[in-house]
């Protein structure tokens, strides 16, 4: 019989708590834009995420449940459309915690970002609720605070800014993109709140500013090059940065301290790689967003990038000693 208590079974992590603090305005905004269902879905997914890690940790006797799993559950939920079925969210977080974290040995040993592993799994397994069923944004004074969930979007082509651009070539209003008054995933619509969260994480030294800057630089740089060459399938950089979850991915996902590059130079290479791959996926693949798969690809190369940087530094240092000897 498994017994549970917060003191004996929960690993307190101040860094993870700061991430949660930075997410509070975004969580409140998700309720305002889409209704209380967003919070209920998040609570439900978090319960299953904690339960999954708890069972695994207890079975293999590897320690306590980490606060990181709460962050994973919240981030995963915020990447989902408002109407995502509860059972899809449940399967997603269970898969993400087990195959994105537990199989590698638990906290601190995962190669991939568990929240993105969960998102990728439900994205390819349940395409309709993840790519077709979107919800309108509430425009009333109290917004979604007065309802369970907002109404469904009628025209799929114009459901999100990126889908609208792909189908019609039209760009959404920049003010709406900045404030979050657009349809999309629960936590990815408001550029303003994500930027403020990023500033807080940088100020509290919780997340790497190098990685954030590198992702955006890589994205803007390649977008400009392709636009100048004449590739119309790639939107202008400003629109691209403010839509499709790029900012959310750059601030919260790419900066995961476990699955991202850890050397100073490696963070720049890793981030630029993610930004560039996002442009390629958005412009030429079937996926409208791209940042999710780009970060997972970046996770794959992060250890190699760090080893390459260390080897280069070691070789350079050895040559310098040889010259001065």
UniProtKB/TrEMBL annotation:
Single GO cellular component term: plasma membrane
Keywords tagged on the record: Flavoprotein, FMN, Membrane, Phosphoprotein, Translocase, Transmembrane, Transmembrane helix, Transport
InterPro entries reported in the protein's UniProt record: NqrB/RnfD, RnfD_bac
GO annotation terms (biological process): electron transport chain; transmembrane transport
A Pfam family the protein falls into: NQR2_RnfD_RnfE
Transmembrane segments: 20-39, 86-104, 178-202, 214-232, 238-256, 291-312
NCBIfam families: rnfD
UniProt-recorded name of the protein: RnfABCDGE type electron transport complex subunit D
Lineage: Bacteria, Bacillati, Bacillota, Clostridia, Eubacteriales
């Amino acid at each position: 019989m498994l017994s549970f208590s917060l003191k004996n079974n929960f690993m307190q992590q101040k860094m993870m708590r700061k991430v949660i603090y930075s997410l509070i305005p975004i969580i409140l905004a998700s309720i305002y834009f889409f209704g209380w269902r967003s919070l209920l879905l998040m609570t439900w997914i978090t319960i299953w995420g904690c339960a999954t890690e708890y069972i695994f940790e207890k079975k293999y006797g590897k320690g306590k449940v980490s606060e990181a799993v709460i962050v994973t559950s919240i981030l995963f939920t915020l990447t989902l459309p408002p109407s995502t079925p509860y059972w899809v969210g449940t399967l997603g977080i269970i898969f993400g915690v087990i195959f994105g974290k537990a199989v590698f040995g638990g906290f601190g040993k995962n190669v991939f970002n568990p929240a993105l592993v969960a998102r990728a799994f439900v994205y390819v397994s349940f395409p309709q609720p993840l790519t077709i069923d979107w919800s309108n944004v509430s425009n009333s004074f109290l917004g979604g605070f007065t309802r369970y969930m907002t109404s469904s979007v009628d025209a799929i082509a114009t459901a999100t800014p990126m889908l609208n651009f792909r189908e019609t070539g039209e760009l959404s209003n920049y003010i709406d993109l900045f404030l979050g008054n657009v349809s999309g995933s629960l936590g990815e619509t408001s550029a303003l709140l994500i930027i403020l969260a990023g500033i807080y994480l940088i100020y509290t030294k919780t997340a790497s500013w190098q990685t954030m800057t590198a992702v955006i630089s890589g994205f803007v740089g390649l977008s400009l090059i392709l636009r100048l060459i004449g590739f119309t399938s790639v939107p202008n950089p400003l629109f691209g940065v403010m839509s499709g979850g790029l900012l959310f991915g750059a601030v919260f996902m790419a900066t995961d301290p476990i699955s991202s590059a850890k050397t100073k130079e490696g963070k720049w290479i890793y981030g630029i790689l993610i930004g560039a791959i996002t442009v390629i996926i958005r412009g030429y693949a079937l996926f409208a967003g791209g940042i999710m798969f780009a970060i997972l690809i970046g996770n794959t190369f992060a250890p190699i990038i760090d080893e390459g940087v260390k080897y280069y530094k070691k070789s350079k240092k050895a040559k310098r000693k040889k010259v001065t000897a």
